[in-house]
Protein: Reverse transcriptase domain-containing protein
Organism: Labrus bergylta
Amino acid sequence: MKCFERLVLAHLKNCLPPTLDPYQFAYRSNRSTEDAVSTALHSVLTHLDNNNTYARMLFVDFSSAFNSVIPSKLNTKLGDLGFNTSLRHWITNRPQYVRSGHTCSTTITLNTGVPQGCVLSPFLYSLFTHDCRPVHGSNTIIKFADDTVVIGLISNNDDTAYREEVQHLAAWCADNNLLLNTSKTKELIMDFRRERGSTHNPIHINGMAVERVSSFKFLGTHITEDLSWSTNTSSLVKKAHQRLFFLRTLKRHHLSSAVLMNFYRCVIESILTSSFSVWYGNCSVTDRKALQRVVKTAQRITRCPLPAIEDVQRKRCLQRAHGILKDSSHPAHRLFTLLPSGRRFRSLRTRTSRLRNSFFPRAVSLLNSTPRTLNSVSLSLSLPLSLRPLLTPPFPLHITSHPSSPHHSSWSHTHISHPSVLLYYSMFISPQ
């Protein structure tokens, strides 16, 4: 049954409509917790780059979210997404029983919750909440399964839209049988204004005030109200130091260098680089040195050269940027815009170092600093949407750029050595 459920899961993912909420990052290809956190922070940092602004982040906690889904409502929402009746009936009306040894309980069909122990359950929950979207343009709702954050971008001390958004979310939860746990729901307020007009009044949900905190761990990343990363870095370094003990133990038992290297990459480096592209750019010098000390310690233990933390971050940042470039449905895809030359990306406008050192501006800068070759990604972005699927030719593509006179078009700035490649692309792009 598990194998069949995985086949159904793959089918459901392939049948998802393009109108699905792009800010639901769970259980979708080319999406991760890193994307969710970086998208949320970019929204905040971009807004804080303006005068007389601040941001509020409400981290929502649901009580038994997966067990609160009403199958009849899920059936209706799956129908709205275009899934056929027989598939919806199989998903929402599955009989279940409990077996203990050779004894089985009576078979029943649950009227609450997604199927227990089912591969589909987390994905079904994300589809159940696909219509939970902001009603005001100044707000954003970022979701990763049941981890949800409401971001309010506030200007001129007017937080009316944000408060209405929170009340709308509470009403939506009541209509969909989801219980908001107000005692575990927390709020962060990022306000860097020198002269604050007034104190920030707390948010109330169902008559209970939401606690304001100075730091919150969202999807494994510690976010603080001053947007510093010492808390997050200290937590990661502490975990890495604990695992260095096991690396030393393996060394004492005379394991090979290859095994030690694999252990380091899987157990230690994976911790140090958790959501790496989100926070490393704004790390302090002290935090970066603390991270590098862990790498140097591991290098002494393994007696093998290890890449510097700065080099790992650069590589990860470029990989993440290329992944977003290839996915036009990614909510951050619009941030990577080619200039008319087709060889460089438009730099994001920044006023503060907080935004300048964050992931997306740094990613654009790194892409522009790489060798200026016209790759398939940039060529795809220069094509109309209807022609992009035809971009991949049946032969290897090798295109290099060379200087040209200013009056030539962007297509004439490239030199293609293979005549068959030139013939293929001349069908889609021609000089002006």
In short: The two ends are 58 Å apart (CA to CA). The first helix runs from residue 2 to 14. Residues 382-388, 390-432 have pLDDT under 50 and may be disordered.
